[in-house]
Known about the structure:
Elements: H1 16-26, H2 40-48, H3 52-57, E1 72-76, H4 81-89, E2 93-96, H5 103-112, E3 117-121, H6 125-131, E4 140-144, E5 155-156, H7 157-162, E6 177-181, E7 191-195, H8 196-206, H9 223-232, E8 237-240, H10 247-258, E9 263-264, H11 274-284, E10 288-291, H12 294-310, E11 321-325, H13 331-338, E12 344-351, E13 355-362, E14 374-375
Parallel strand pairs: 1-2, 1-3, 3-4, 4-5, 8-9, 8-10, 10-11, 11-12
Antiparallel strand pairs: 6-7, 12-13, 13-14
Helix pairs in contact: 5-6, 11-12, 12-13
Amino acid sequence: xxxxxxxxxxxxxxxxxxxRERVGGRRRRLPGGDGxxxxxxPDLLRRLRRPCRPxxxxxxxxxxxxxxxxxxxxxxxxxxxxxxxxxxQGRGVPVNxxxxxxxxxxxxxxxxxxxxxxxxxxxxxxxVSRVVDRLPRLRLLVEVDDGGxxxxxxxxxxxxxxxxDPMPRLDRPGxxxxxxxxxxxxxxxxxxxxxxHDFVKGLYDAFATLGLPVATPSTLAEIPAFVxxxxxxxxxxxxxxxxxxxxxxxxxxxxxxLLSGGTAVLLEGRSFDAHELWRTVERERVTxxxxxxxxxxxxxxxxxxxxEQDGRQLDLTSVDTIVSSGAMWSAEIKDxxxxxxxxxxxxxxxxxEGGGYAVTAAAKGMHVETAxxxxxxxxRC
Length: 381
């Protein structure tokens, strides 16, 4: 499989790894740039490197495979971003797992990705127990306790964390892989691979399209100006409503704030609750909401209507952008939202394999037709 070119699907200078290090290292200096709560960047970055040593070896005591950046690590963890980041810190390849998968889909994905380590919540441990004997490559099971039963042979994540010193900071080549598995709507899940420098460059290239009008850096020398420009802007606080196993949730909702000194705020419920979202928006002064079409937008509008009927009022004036990708967002729902929010609604069309292809925008007093888009600058017919 050939690595993809990243969300922006554009060519350019290799600026990924060093750029990521520099922006990540300085984001704590930006207003509100605490990465994700609690703890902020100092705590987050210290913790990221602690479990990388055993996971990079793949078995808690072995050695890396020659010529390999690290092991593939499926993450069967609803909404736990720091553990995904740890895999990248240790040069492992994080593999997203749909936590609704049952035995056959789970076994297929782990086998197809050549994975040697599996990290999972104990509440999902029953299906792990049933498939582990079918997966001879698996050498390490790491369980995160969320109230489920212990899986025989698995090591507790916190114990793994406490038993190892952090790995030293690594120089990571741009050829290191990032992988995202599609949802399998055309059959079994498909793993799409990207060179990390292409992927990060694509995210930066997409910033302007997704409502962040700050010139992003194309060389290391441009990073100070980028950081200064971000510091002058209002605080960037993003809520990804889809699960982080979903490309839209991670690429549009989770990664951009962490690459630009902002804050990613996660909803606590495992099922989407629009009332929880709006309470979170008011409490955290959220500026961007990321959704997947009408499946999220319709209950969001319904919740606003219910609050109006009940005479409840929340301060939602911090929201300046709502971004959707991955499913249809109908015109009537957009109209209902823009009538109540002074926000720009960005509807993006793209794919896991190729990134963003087209976009449309709506705002108060500006009606747009359903599923009518303008091609992105990087798209060619």
